[in-house]
Every structure is written in structure tokens, then in C-alpha cells.
Amino acid sequence: MSTDSSASSTAPKGVRMVHAIYPGQDKLFRDIAVSSEFLKANQKYFGVQCTQCQIKMEKLLKCAKCKSVWYCSKECQKKNWPTHKSTCHADERSSGLFKLVRMFSINTVLMGYLKAAVVFECGLLDNPRIGFDMPFLARIEIAIEPSDVLNFGGLYVNDPTVEEKLKGMLQVNAITAWQSPSMQAPLTPKRLNTWREARARCNAEGFAEDPVGLIEFIGRRCTEDSGNSLTAELHIPNITLAIARTRAPFTSVSAITGIRTEKPLSAASCLEFINSHIRADKQNQLRLRTEMTEQDKEVIRAAGRNEDTFPVRILKEKMRREQLYAGLLQLTQ
Questions:
Q1: Cβ(194)–Cβ(117) under 8 Å?
Q2: What 3-state class would DSSP assign to 174?
Q3: What whole-number distance in Å separates Cα of residue 198 and Cα of residue 233?
């Protein structure tokens, strides 16, 4: 990426962006990606339950505003409204987070790397009690970015020529452990009960030696610290713990120089792999692509303006973590 010396700091002019793609990227994707047939066949195993009474449901009756909670009846929705009201935020996307989170959650490749990231972030290797006699909760910050990184750059520098309709893709921006300083509040009784039931079920099914916790997928709004979320149980197989202990490095190849580099296995490198794997899916085989909303685009524009909101801070952390965005960060530093 190169810039004109007369470029403005708020809306740079003369910015020339070049995106180089590793020639073997398509083959690498095909070698490890989960097939569309597998994803279609396994959608039925990702179910939801009534937010109020916990009855498992086959037919979804979702909140019309946030589209992120479900009820078995209007009566349960009315009973739950005083609790749900403070966390209910309008979502421009017709299906909310559900379809994207469902497709991500049944993808064994993506979830395998996400579980490894959770192992590191939630300290499962450091404390053998976590996931057994004490719960853990991993909060997964997700967002929608342009599937073409050049459009991401255009939004970031507030380029008026960026098309109004943009194809987007799911990205994982961060993982936050419940035990971190920003999450000291105890689990709610409902979540604690969900974890206890999941722990007991895994014990009964022969997985007593595998840690079990909760995972919360959160989609932030463009100007607020709050957002809509979905929570599910998370069973981490022992093989994932074994892989995490090895810390075997990732090997990446520069599309420009061809130089190979290694990054140790960590939460950060797992997230970078997840995001690059989704980005490499040009045909939407993983079903993780969707139209971008104005809320999605505004988070990126706000990051380019260096605004100090939680969604912007999370996005900037991701940009500093992943090499793809290095040139863009230089424009606003």
C-alpha cells in the first residue's frame, strides 16, 4: 500500500491499495474446508430453546426487534420482556445473528480452532478445575466485514466511491474470558444452570474427562458497547487440549515475497486462521457470507476516524493482530 504525501488524516486522498493473494490459496481452502453437503446435513443439530422456560424448539418464534432470542409462546415472551428489554437492540439483518452463528457452530474446522483459542484465553491449561467443578464462559466478538479487503480499505479511509451494496462475511474479532477484569460479574442463575446441565449430560455420555463451558457470540452495534448475543454450551474434547499443549506453529507464506513465517499456536493465531479461512471462501461454501448493513459499515468508518467506542477498539485490536491490515493502520497512526 502506498500513500500520497498530501493525503488528509481524516479522509486520505491518493491512497493506492494493492491486495496480493497467495497463488495456492484456493487449493489450501479446498483441502481443509468442510463441504457444503456436510453443513446442510448438520443444520438440524443446531437447535434453540425458549429463552423463558427453556423448552427446546423446532419452530422459531424470535424477537422481531433483535432476532436473537426465541420463545415458545407470546406468554413466555411477555414474561421475559423485563429481563430482555435492556439487551434488545434492533438488527438490520433479517435473520439477525442466528443463521451465521449456526453455520459457524456446525463447521468442525472453524470450531476446532475456536475451541483451541478458548483453551488458551480461558486458562484451561493452567487450572484443571475449569470446565469441571467451575464453569467458564468465552465471549466471542463477531462482526461483518467486506469479503473484498479493498472495500474494507475504502470504508476505513471513507472513500465515497465505495459501492452502497457490499458483500460481507463473518469475522471473529476477539475472545474475552469470563474471568478477565472486564467480566467479574458472576454468571446469571440461568446460565449457571445451563452449564450444570451440560456438564451432567457430558458426564452421562462418557465425556467426564472433557471440560465443558459456555460460549457467547456477540454482534456489537456501531456506536454502543452493547449488542445482541447468542449463548450455547461448549464441549472441548481432550484432543483439543492435547493439541493446545504442543503449541505447534502455524506456517504462512507471503503472497508478495514467498517467504515462509511461523507463528506459535495461540488464541491470536487461531483467530487469524479462522478469519483468513472464511475470507478464502470465494464461493460461499461455508455459508458465512451476507449483505453488509449500514451498522456493519459504520464500525469500519468509525475505526478509520479513530473514534473511541468499544466496537472500534475491538476492531483495531484485530487489525493490529493480523498482518493483512498493517498498511491500513499506518494511515491513522
A1: no
A2: strand
A3: 7
User: Residue 145 class from Cβ within 10 Å (0-12 exposed, 13-18 middle, 19+ buried)?
Assistant: buried
pLDDT of 190 reads: 83
Asked whether the whole model's pTM tops 0.70, one would answer yes
Determine the 3-state secondary structure of 217 from DSSP.
strand
Measured between alpha carbons, how far is 280 from 228 in angstroms, rounded to an integer? 27
- Spatial CB neighbours of 320, under 8 Å, sequence gap ≥ 6: 329
Q: CA nearest 234: which of 68, 144, 104, 321?
A: 104
Q: Which residues contact 315 (CB under 8 A, 6 or more apart)?
A: 143, 173, 299, 300, 303
Q: What is the pLDDT of residue 223?
A: 46
Which of 27-41, 157-171, 254-268 is least confident?
A: 254-268
Q: Where are the alpha helices (DSSP H) in the chain?
A: 25-32, 36-42, 74-84, 98-105, 108-121, 149-156, 189-204, 238-246, 267-279, 294-304, 310-321, 326-331
Higher pLDDT, 292 or 184: 292
Confidence of residue 284 (pLDDT cuts 50, 70, 90): very high
C-alpha cell recorded at residue 75 = 406468554
More confident residue, 319 or 3: 319
Task: Quote the CA–CA distance of 316 and 304 in Å, as a whole number.
Answer: 9
CA distance 233 to 199: 9
What is the tens place of the pLDDT at every residue in 155-195?
999 999 999 999 999 999 999 997 644 445 668 888 898 99
For residues 136 and 120, the answer to whether their CB atoms sit within 8 Å is no
